[in-house]
Write a structure and sequence with these properties.
This protein is of the alpha/beta class. Helix content is 43%, strand content 19%. The protein has two domains: 183 residues, Rossmann fold; 115 residues, Phosphofructokinase domain (Rossmann fold), CATH 3.40.50.460. The chain is elongated. The structure holds 6-O-phosphono-beta-D-fructofuranose. 6-O-phosphono-beta-D-fructofuranose binds next to loops.
Length: 327
């Protein structure tokens, strides 16, 4: 370890993700190991500007590894997007003698952290936490695995009704502008089709695909719809398809925020522990503006600016495979 840091702050920002608490536990306990004081900021960047800092002890993070959400609360802050807001935050942190930060969040969180570092020099290590799994520089984000499991469980249940009634179900999942959650859910639940933001699709294509599965005597169908797909919301897609192919009894299910909550999976707890603990070691090693991620199961650092600017590509081979398997 090249440098001794005496006091850091940690916060969660943006949408909550299952595993954030497990990650906070790892941060606080690793700080205790290296004799670093750690302060939790309540409510993300909003709390940073308002000076809502609380000292965290190892006992404060007991019994939280299994809990969804974030005990530090989270928010999306408009105020931090202004120069004045960031100046206020820098003054607050200086007053509390904070020498480094660990930021748990996604794209918006890291965009803010990167600008803040460049303006005020505060060392910051980001830990990817988002069910969207859309951050460049890490194979997986904390929360993604749990969200896939939740969505798959929901689709399994919908399948019972789809099969019993011979229905065509459009199931909308989250993911903002990326289709990782939809694609993984589609494969793991054996869905017939998946609509993604990354793959241009027309209503003619979809109609043709459905007619093809109809020819193979598929009496029911499950279509996973990523919320950011190129055709629109599941409800509108279902209406259009109903008007084109009358034979199907069509229904729509939007899984929504069910995907964001709940106890983190074993994988997410493990990932959260690794990345949280490593974030502290990264700060001690002198990293000042990076995201700590996982690449082929090894820890990898990516400059925050690169993590937010680059598009994480979906694996189109997986999509091809999904189409083969859905026969
Ligand atoms: O980024 C996580 C996410 O759940 C996206 O998948 C979704 O588009 C968005 O957040 C929903 O945000 P909110 O909880 O603010 O409605």
């Amino acid at each position: 370890m090249s440098q001794k840091i005496k006091r850091i702050a940690v916060f969660t920002s943006g949408g909550d993700a299952p595993g954030m608490n497990a990650c906070l536990r790892a941060v606080v306990r690793t700080c205790a190991y290296y004799e670093i004081e750690v302060y939790g900021i309540i409510g993300g960047y909003e709390g940073m500007m308002d000076g809502a800092l609380v000292k965290l002890e190892t006992s404060d993070v007991g019994n939280i590894i299994q809990r969804g959400g974030t005990f530090l609360k989270t928010a999306r802050s408009e105020r931090f997007m202004t120069e004045a807001g960031r100046k206020t935050a820098a003054q607050t942190l200086k007053k509390s003698k904070i020498e480094g930060m660990v930021a748990l969040g996604g794209n918006g969180t890291f965009t803010g952290a990167d600008i803040f570092h460049r303006e005020h020099g505060m060392p910051v290590v980001g830990v990817p936490c988002t069910i969207d799994n859309d951050l460049y520089g890490t194979d997986y984000s904390i929360g993604f695995d749990t969200a896939v499991n939740t969505a798959v469980e929901a689709v399994d249940k919908i399948r019972d009704t789809a099969e019993s009634h011979d229905r065509l179900f459009f199931v909308e999942v989250m993911g903002r502008n990326s289709g990782f959650l939809a694609l993984h859910t589609a494969i793991a639940s054996g869905a017939t089709h998946v609509l993604l933001p990354e793959k241009e699709m027309t209503f003619d294509d979809l109609e043709a695909a459905l007619k093809k599965s109809g020819k193979r005597k598929k009496l029911f169908s499950l279509i996973i719809v990523a919320e950011g797909n190129t055709l629109g919301k599941a409800e509108a897609i279902a209406e259009e398809i109903k008007s084109r192919i009358g034979i199907y009894d069509t229904r729509v299910a939007v899984i929504g925020h069910l995907q964001r909550g709940g106890a983190p999976s074993g994988y997410d707890r493990l990932l959260a522990s690794r990345l949280g603990s490593n974030a502290i070691e990264a700060l001690l090693d002198g990293h000042k503006n990076v995201m700590v991620g996982i690449d082929n199961n090894l820890i990898k650092y990516t400059p925050l600016g690169i993590a937010v600017k680059n598009q994480k590509e979906i694996n189109l081979d997986l999509l091809r495979m999904a189409e083969i398997l859905a026969m």
